[in-house]
Amino acid sequence: MKDNEKAIRDDRKQKGKIGEDVAAYYLEQQGYHLLERNWRCRSGELDIIALAPRQADEYANAWDRKVEEDWNTDEVEIAEVQASRESSVAHSEITYDSDPSDVQSNRMAAKTIPVIVIAEVRSRTGSTHGTAAESVDWRKRKQLRETAAVYAHHTGQHEALFRYDVITIKLNDHYQAVELEHCMEAFI
Q: What are the boundaries of the signal sequence (predicted)?
């Protein structure tokens, strides 16, 4: 390989890494819970896999409803439930410490289906080869869907809803992010 080709490839990797770091930071600031970065399998790579912020709120609300409905407890027990809830939200699961006879109520609250966001990150320093969003063509979308299906199978997320977002990062000549665009539900 020629030195020039290696330099171009290294430059591209550096731009991609910077863009992904900026996108991950942005998503965390927006309330997303990052599950994976650069998840790979045979069919491809998923840049960022995250739990949508609304989903974390839904889990928290389910816990609050459960506390109000089932527990007539003192403040110490409520604090324990809240600590348990925070742990479950961080792991994107719902669990209950209620009476086993209350199975119907548990099933109803457990119907909250996770929304997993697959974020494809595209970084550019110019627009001579088209915009970053334009580079997510039908082939790339197909690959992302196939790779997300493998991820769902691998992690047991069969009932989760998957949303595909595209985050474009424009970098200046010094590789500093100057613009970020988040296109939610960019494709199905």
A: none
